[in-house]
Amino acid sequence: MIKRVGVAGFDRRALLKVGAAAGLAQVAAPFVISARGEAPIKIGVANPLTGTYAAPGKNESIGMQLAVDQLNAKNGILGRQIELLAEDSTSGDAGAAVQKTRKLIERDNVDFLVGNVNSALAQAMAQVSNEKGVLHIVPGGHTDPITGTDCKWNVFRVCNTTRMEANAVSDLLFKTYGKKWHFITPDYAFGHTLYQGCEADLKKLGGTVTGNELTPLGTTDFSAYLIKARAANPDVLVVLVQGNDMVNCLKQISQFGIDKQIHVAGTQQELEPVEAMPPEARVGVWMFEWYWKQAAGTPGLDQFIAETRKRSGGKVPTARTWFGYVTIHAYALACEKAKTIEAKAAAKALADLELPPEIKLQPNKVYFRGGDHQLMLSAFLGELLQTGDGDPENLFKVNSIVAGDSIAPSVADTGCKMNMPA
Amino acid sequence: MTAGEYRRVVVLAAIWAALIFAPYWMPVFGGYTALGSRVLVLGLGAMALNFLLGFTGVLSFGHAAWFGLGAYACGLTLKFIIPSTPLGLLAGTLVGGVAGALLGALLVRRRGVYFAMVTIAFGQVFYYIAFQWSSVTGGDDGLRGFARQPLDFSLFQIDLLHSDLAFYYFVLVCFAVVVAVMALILRSPFGRTMIAIRENERRARFLGIPIELHIWIAFTLSCFFMAFAGGLYALLNNFADPRVLHYSLSGDFVIMAVMGGMRMFWGPLLGAVVFVVLQDYLSSLTVNWMSFIGVLIVLIVLFFPRGILGLIRQRRTA
Amino acid sequence: MLQLIFFNVTNGLIIGAFYALMAIGLSLILNLSGVINFAHGGFLVIGGYLAYALTPRLGFWGALIVAPFLTALIGFAVERLLIRRLYGRDPLYSLLLTFGLAFIIEDGTRQIWGANGLPFSVPAALTSPLSYQFFFITGYRMFMVAMVAVVVALLFVLLRYTRIGVRIRAGTLDLETVAALGVNVRALRSLNFAVGIFLAGLAGVLAAGQIGLEPTMGDALLMPSFIAIIVGGVGSLTGTLLGGLLIGVASGLTAVIFPSASEAVIYVMMAIVLLVRPRGLLGEEGMLT
After folding, report:
1. Which residues of A touch B235 (CB under 8 A)?
2. Do B110 and C289 touch (CB under 8 A)?
């Protein structure tokens, strides 16, 4: 768990000004005056800790705290300790997310900003961080524009884009299951771009779309859509909904027995929802953005798993934990490379940073692409396991790990025109 | 000047002095300018709701609808029609207010619990429209791509976007104007009629007051004020998302009004100060901030139903 | 197409039955106590989580019976400790109180059971489709409808033929007179509240078999229940039942024709009902206005 450490570097002159009110001020804003010679580097996190996305938000926190602990044990960043300030952005209230971002930047003067799991909130935060010129990594919002049409010099992203997700899975689905696809798509920007990506790939491969069911976000009952999908008689039912919606959808698919008549698959899958499903609902071919069960001997992997367990009540790391871990380490590496924490220099250093083995924790090359600030992370393709393969924690069988740059569209195709300030 | 008048002048002077100098004294207590702007905007919303709730006695639990409509209309105007902050605010106020006036006509015959339920449900209609109509509203991703524009006085310009301080004072001026209008209405004969309805609807009816018409007018005015606050909220965030229409925000406004004291003119502002600052502060300290807020609400309802100001007044008279 | 429509009407009725179960609980509390229970979704979540916690010991069937009773017990305590202090005050206060309770329940469940959803399984016997043709009628869905039918029938019998039931109905119409006749209104309201929460708890267990069990599960289910009450008419339980079924069918049908409006359609229905028949389908004029 992240604990808010306090607001270091409290303005002493202000303290004098307050005089008698000082006692009250202590109650109102607890502060810790740093005892060390140099003020710590402050990293501000605004991520969901309550609401629908609280689970991924919490796992990202665990990864970040792990990275901070590791760095602080080894002399921090450029010899300075790191302080993590975590704020609850809520799961869907952009007003709150913007407010928390301003608080972190204006009041706490953070050097680096992290957020958000929710794409919408990530974009709202990016508007503020860009206005204030603070380096910002988006750890887990997938919508394309963040590193596409809306890309910004100070904003980087460690999770996939929707287009990468579509490209990662399409080939495999087509080869294994057939060419008639029916989609269940969440009816908002993320779902629309994901669908467009899949559709374009399918057309290129020579397949056909039998239909696309647009389901409102937060749908609890999928039966009406499943009735339509089954009536269309496709080879594959491609489930693009995410999070709780996906849990509901797959639960109902398995109850209707649709997975026994039509192949069920999808693009992005995560360990959090899979753990929330009953075993019979864990079906189909999917892509994970990172998975913990990999070939033995991946450098640093065992340690990462062990350290995560210590902080998560014994649970294995998810892709979210990895995102948080990578976010902090990437920032540290960029600062070390630039020899400063100044935002523009650090952004330049980050722009083509390659992650070392003990950070990337996977076989392929993982690096930030300078043109759009998108991390080129691998896609883990495979099948869900209902009860684990002799290991109840292992719910996914990785068949192949595809390098990120082979599934990402070219920078020109993302629509990003990066303007680095001089 | 009587003692009562004297005290009132002193209190008013203290309130405005506190608001005017807020950006300078807040940081001492861990505040920041943007928090001040947020308190003002939400406080204005709570006061607008209280215009109806506290002075007419009609409980609307869906007022976020008009707040949100104001926010979206303001944002859409800035984005698609004309990049002008005052015109965006004007459009927001009109859209929210007119929508409120139309739907208000449907609702005024309902009272009490039924009125509350219907307003909740209508509020959610707009939430779903904003959520689903993504080609216009941006859906769940929210409405982006607009920003508050500089104020142009032909001789000079004021940049509201890059200076939080300038924006705070802009909000404060807007706040002062709307609050002055509210106070004037409440002092007018119409305002006194509103209070008469609150105190005893049946008696007011016997006196020949057209109750439905008065409630409708009060509701409509309240919606206009609310929509104006919503427009400011869009400018505050440079963003509008469906949450501004959700019933949970309506609930927040009601809590602010009750917490501060809904029979008092300044009560909701005080409530907003406490609620917004506390939420901001608690959510930094603990992930369980929701429980604290929930317990606070329960305590207020059970033990301080007249709110903070009501408590102070009670002390004084006792 | 015709078959598709038929499928969705049937399916809509199944979903509607579930909405009705929740709405009737809400309606009971609203009618007798004048409390709009915002925490109803929270109690639903409690029911689901309790069932999850009890399943390893009691099995699904045991949990199905015990969890709603435990939920009702919690509801009873909440009524005794908190809500009863607010009777006779402006309905605003009870509304706010339950609004605050909903916060506490969401946070509490997350604290106890974690933010991530939990896998709740129903017995294999219930999870298969009854026929290949009508595949959407699974054992579990039929079971849900049957449960709702039995519980609602029992409730109506209770209200019509037992002394307590008659008092509850009479209290809905005119509480003062009932009190004047020497009925212990306080006990009546506590019991009535507990019954309402029992229904929420049962809805929670049933929902957990169908959708993901997580702390915000109740949010999406609360609003349709509100609408069911308004459409059916405040003050009438039969109306609430009818309202629930109607909005279920309406949203099921809209999902075929115009999916993005499948949630908005229930609000449109409500607006039409309010325009054409402001008291709701079976509501009586003068009640709870």
Report:
1. none
2. yes
Q: How many residues are there in chain A? A: 422
C114 touches chain B (CB under 8 A): no
Which residue among C8, C115, C121 sits closest to A224, beta carbon to beta carbon?
Answer: C8
Q: Residue A132 sits in which domain range? A: 36-160+292-377
Report the predicted TM-score, pTM, of the whole model to 2 decimal places.
0.89
Residue A13 has a pLDDT of 42
Distance of residue A302 Cα from the nearest chain B Cα, in angstroms = 30
Mean pLDDT of chain B: 91
Q: Which residues of A touch B272 (CB under 8 A)?
A: none
Judging contacts by C-beta atoms under 8 Å, the chain C residues touching residue A52 are 214, 216
Which CATH number does B34-317 carry? 1.10.3470
A247, two tokens = 């849990």
- Evaluate whether residue A103 is within a structural domain: yes
Q: How close does chain B come to C32, measured CA to CA in Å? A: 12
Q: Comparing A9-23, A130-144, A321-335, which segment has the lowest mean pLDDT?
A: A9-23
Determine what percent of chain C falls in helix, strand and coil, rounding each to the nearest 5.
75, 0, 25
Q: Is the residue at A155 inside a domain?
A: yes
The last residue of one of the domains, among A288, A315, A349, is A288
Domain positions in chain B: 34-317
For residue B215, is pLDDT > 50?
A: yes
The fold of C2-276 is: ABC transporter involved in vitamin B12 uptake, BtuC (1.10.3470)
Answer yes or no: are the C-beta atoms of A338 and A323 closer than 8 Å: no
- Taking the C-alpha atoms of B130, B132, B137 and B139 in order, what is their torsion angle to the nearest 10 degrees? 100
CB-based contact C259 A51, cutoff 8 Å:
no
Query: Is there a contact between C37 and C86 (Cβ–Cβ < 8 Å)?
Result: no
CATH number at residue A179: 3.40.50.2300
User: Is-contact A92 A120, C-beta < 8 A?
Assistant: yes
Residue finishing a domain among A236, A261, A288: A288
Residues A280 and A308 in one domain: no
Q: How far apart are CA B70 and CA B126, in angstroms?
A: 12
Please state, rounded to an integer, the average pLDDT across all residues of chain C.
Answer: 89
**pLDDT tens readout for residues B222-242:** 999 999 999 999 999 999 989
- The bridge status of strand A379-384 relative to strand A285-288 is antiparallel
Interface of chain B toward chain C, CB-CB under 8 angstroms: 53, 59, 61, 106, 109-114, 116-118, 120-122, 124-125, 128-129, 132, 251, 254-255, 258, 288, 290-291, 293-298, 300-302, 305
Alpha-carbon distance C19 to C241, whole Å? 8
Please report the pLDDT score of residue A8 as a whole number: 39
Is residue A130 a part of any domain in this protein? yes
Per-residue pLDDT tens over the stretch C38-81: 999 999 999 999 999 999 999 999 999 999 999 999 999 999 99
Question: In this predicted structure, what is the pLDDT of residue B318?
Answer: 62
In a shared domain, residues A282 and A299: no
